[in-house]
């Protein structure tokens, strides 16, 4: 990995096999600074594998790729350390304590700084996970279904929070999701991973803030479902 390229992600020909099974078969991917890219695809299509490769968590994958060193990862599970208080979780590896307090305030949890992770709801814990990522002042967020385990209402609130944080901080993101609406609400482009390659790249040019009832949303939803092999009846 290295920095210095114009994009926050530049990947060419990324491959990954597990035994005889080829999961990534030459993935090319570019993400520009500030761009939010959703990554969709069937179960087992390799979305998490690609995200782990880009995050540097899977050094065995061949191919050439550069990823901004200023990246942070948020997973579906919060992955907070249970023996550290909330603020100490946010502060892991960050020397500037005030940045951590600010990040916690930005996700609306300033008053939970001294709480233990076990005292938080699932949605709050995921907010802390985002605060921990934000405190690193990332140029790129690598997000593996970060709202996937939340109930529908909490998910909507988190999507709204993500939109606000993005508008304020201007980070880029790769967002792995199963949720077509989420992709269309949050992303500038939606990619479909299929048989080891990026099989489709759909620009999402709707204005912000977005809602599912906005003009053009339904047509894009139909198009994306089609690309995912789940066409709606006409
Ligand atoms: N460490 C591993 N060892 C062996 N096989 C693996 C490993 N990691 C992933 N795989 C396999 O690679 C394939 C892709 O997995 P991956 O988790 O990347 O898919 P995904 O698109 O994220 O799936 P889902 O949408 O269900 O989360 C699967 O068949 C999985 O079993």
Automatic annotation (TrEMBL):
InterPro entries given in the database record: AAA+_ATPase, ABC_transporter-like_ATP-bd, ABC_transporter-like_CS, ABC_transporter_ATP-bind, P-loop_NTPase
An example molecular function term from Gene Ontology annotations: ATP hydrolysis activity
UniProt KW keywords: ATP-binding, Cell membrane, Hydrolase, Membrane, Nucleotide-binding, Translocase, Transport
This enzyme's EC code(s): 3.6.3.-
This protein's record includes keyword Transmembrane helix: no
Domain ABC transporter: 9-220
Positions of transmembrane segments: none
Coiled-coil region(s): none
Name this protein carries in UniProt: Sulfonate transport system ATP-binding protein
Classification of source organism: Bacteria, Bacillati, Actinomycetota, Actinomycetes, Micromonosporales
């Amino acid at each position: 990995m290295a920095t210095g390229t114009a994009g926050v992600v530049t990947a060419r020909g990324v491959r990954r096999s597990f035994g005889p099974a080829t999961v990534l078969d030459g993935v090319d991917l570019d993400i520009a600074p500030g761009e939010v890219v959703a990554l969709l695809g069937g179960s087992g299509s390799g979305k998490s594998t690609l995200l782990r490769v880009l995050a540097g968590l899977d050094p065995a994958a061949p191919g050439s790729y550069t990823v901004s060193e200023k990246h942070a990862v948020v997973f579906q599970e919060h992955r907070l350390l249970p023996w550290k208080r909330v603020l100490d979780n946010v502060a892991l590896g960050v020397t500037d304590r005030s940045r951590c307090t600010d990040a916690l305030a930005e996700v609306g949890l300033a008053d939970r700084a001294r709480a233990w992770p076990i005292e938080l709801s699932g949605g709050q814990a995921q907010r802390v996970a985002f605060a921990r990522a934000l405190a690193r002042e990332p140029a790129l967020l690598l997000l593996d279904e970060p709202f996937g385990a939340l109930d529908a209402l909490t998910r909507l609130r988190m999507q709204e929070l993500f939109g606000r944080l993005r508008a304020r901080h201007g980070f880029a993101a790769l967002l792995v999701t199963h949720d077509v609406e989420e992709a269309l609400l949050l992303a500038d482009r939606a990619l479909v991973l299929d048989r080891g390659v990026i099989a489709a790249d759909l620009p999402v040019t709707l204005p912000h803030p977005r809602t599912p009832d906005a003009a053009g949303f339904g047509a894009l939803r139909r198009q994306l479902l089609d690309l995912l092999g789940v066409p709606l009846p006409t």
